[in-house]
Design a protein that fits this description.
eight-stranded mixed β-sheet; alpha/beta; binds nicotinamide-adenine-dinucleotide; N-(1-d-carboxylethyl)-l-norvaline Dehydrogenase, domain 2
């Protein structure tokens, strides 16, 4: 009986939480925001994607449509009409806007994926805080800024958490769900549940630099650069060694080119500023040189390697 009651309560509260997050606003229609909007729409939520211009939003919608069509090509290989129907159904769940303040009035959750700048994120959330309903949850997809620092621009620190997705969002299963000191248990539970509803695997994280994945990954990537700088191995050998010896799908230099050298530098510089004595966070002259030369990786055609 006790089990039954507990089970029913759990099911009810989970249903209530599902019911709570139906309308989502994603702010930032770049790489991450488009991917987040896509998975939110695929799982049957209505989503408004916000960016600063109609042109950017057209590109976001085009990127989402392209990504959906790639999925459909595989999933509906022998039923192309059903595939097209699926794409249109998902696209119907997505609308766009250049005015965040006007759309959040009717939203259960705001997921922010704009430029990685504390002041700009704070300004955005401070504006939205004044117009969003009381119960709207705010979440940031920041990779390197403390959630608490962004949240303090609002009067809803208890309804504020982190939802850290991975690129490419439709493919990557993981979401790091971040509980800042002021995040309420109810908000945290709602964010965990929402991630599951998206078909992702959430892990719980504290509001500490790099959460789990980047806290381990970025020092590893920096250590690979330092190893190479000291002349202990060529980029090619280090990449092959980690693929064949550690079973990693990409070597560290391949991964650095994929992530973007500027992104890696931005993260490590931020951590170095906070903990200058920590050797894991020390800057690298080689990384700084490549970034100064605008060799940022795949996106600029050259990083540690040349790309086509
Ligand atoms: N790229 C990654 O692999 C990755 C992974 C996880 C988390 N993140 C985080 O996600 C966020 C976005 O990263 P991205 O790679 O998608 O960046 P991006 O540059 O591709 O996209 C950012 C978008 O935000 C828009 N924007 C900027 N200011 C805005 C504002 N005030 N209002 C509305 N839109 C605004 C820009 O026009 C741009 O389209 C960052 O916080 C980043 O740290 C990135």
């Amino acid at each position: 009986m006790a089990f039954f009651t507990h089970h029913v309560l759990r099911t009810l509260s989970s249903a209530a939480r599902n019911a709570a997050i139906k309308h989502v606003t994603v702010i930032g229609g770049g790489l991450m925001g488009s991917g987040i909007a896509q998975v939110v729409a695929v799982t049957g939520h209505s989503v408004v994607l916000v960016d600063t211009s109609e042109d950017i939003l057209k590109n976001s919608t085009r990127a989402i449509e392209g990504s959906l069509k790639r999925v459909v090509k595989k999933k509906f290989a022998d039923k192309p009409e059903a595939g097209e129907e699926f794409v249109q159904k998902v696209l119907k769940n997505i609308s766009t806007s250049t005015d965040a303040a006007s759309v959040v009035k009717n939203t259960d959750l705001v997921v922010e994926a704009i430029v990685e700048n504390l002041k700009i994120k704070q300004d955005l959330f401070s504006t939205l805080d004044k117009v969003a309903p009381e119960n709207t949850i705010f979440a940031s997809n920041t990779s390197s800024l403390p959630i608490a620092d962004i949240a303090r621009a609002t009067a809803r620190v208890d309804r504020f958490g982190g939802l850290h997705f991975f690129n490419p969002v439709p493919m990557m299963k993981l979401v790091e769900v971040i509980k800042a000191p002021a995040t309420s248990q109810q908000t945290f539970a709602a964010l965990l549940e929402f991630s599951r509803v998206l078909g992702k695997h959430p892990v719980s994280c504290k509001d500490t630099p790099g959460f789990i994945v980047n806290r381990l990954l970025v020092p590893y990537l920096m250590e690979a650069i330092r190893l190479h700088e000291r002349g202990h191995g060529s980029k090619e050998d280090i990449d092959v060694a980690m693929k064949l010896g550690a079973g990693y799908p990409m070597g560290p230099f391949e991964l650095l080119d994929y992530v973007g050298l500027d992104t890696c530098k931005f993260i490590i510089d931020g951590w170095h500023e906070v903990e200058p004595e920590n050797p894991l966070f020390a800057p690298s002259p080689l990384l700084n040189k490549l970034v100064a030369e605008s060799k940022l990786g795949k996106k600029t055609g050259e990083g540690f390697y040349k790309h086509n």
